[in-house]
Design goal:
Serine Threonine Protein Phosphatase 5, Tetratricopeptide repeat, 177 residues, single chain, mainly alpha
Length: 177
């Protein structure tokens, strides 16, 4: 094999390896298995990543930070995702609302949940979480309306089961109030 052909073949092998590694990073970032923060960081900094991939990687990394209670970094990543307007933008707002909820910033949480359901009226978890805040604030009718909206929503996200079960339980608790 001539030297040029060997070099071209080596370049193709390296390129193929880089593409496979990028795909693996995107999958690890999405699933949270393995070095997920590192994988998400590589997706964010890769010149091969699209704007949508970067935005969703910020959302995923933010969610992973949230899960380990690193709310400061979670909030930063959700905020970085929003201007990129990725496919799952409603998650950036909903998850940002969750951070604010956990840190006691109820008005900011409600604002974030408002934006999440404005983008995706089927986002059941955002209705339920906002309903929990309204209930905590003594705004029973608003809470009831959000729980009912959550039960009517058909979300594509895994937290729909939690949203429906929680909304149903709280609606039962609100009977007679």
């Amino acid at each position: 094999m001539p030297t040029c052909a060997k070099m071209a073949f080596a370049v193709l092998l390296l390129l193929g390896s880089a593409i496979a590694a990028a795909a693996q990073d995107a999958e690890t970032c999405r699933t949270g298995k393995g070095d997920w923060i590192g994988a998400c960081s590589r997706v964010v900094t890769s010149s091969r990543s699209t704007r949508d991939e970067v935005g969703n990687a910020y959302i995923n990394r933010g969610q992973h930070y949230y899960e380990i209670r690193d709310y400061e970094n979670a909030l930063k990543d959700f905020d970085r995702a929003i201007p990129l307007r990725p496919k799952w933008l409603q998650l950036a707002y909903g998850n940002r609302g969750n951070v604010y909820y956990q840190t006691g910033e109820d008005e900011k949480a409600i604002d974030s949940y408002d934006k999440a359901v404005e983008i995706d009226p089927q986002y059941a978890a955002a209705y339920t979480a906002r309903g929990l805040l309204y209930e905590k604030m003594g705004l029973t009718e608003r809470a009831r309306a959000d729980y009912e909206a959550a039960l009517g929503a058909k979300s594509v996200f895994a937290d729909q089961k939690w949203a429906h079960e929680t909304a149903r339980a709280h609606l039962d608790d609100l009977k007679g109030k």
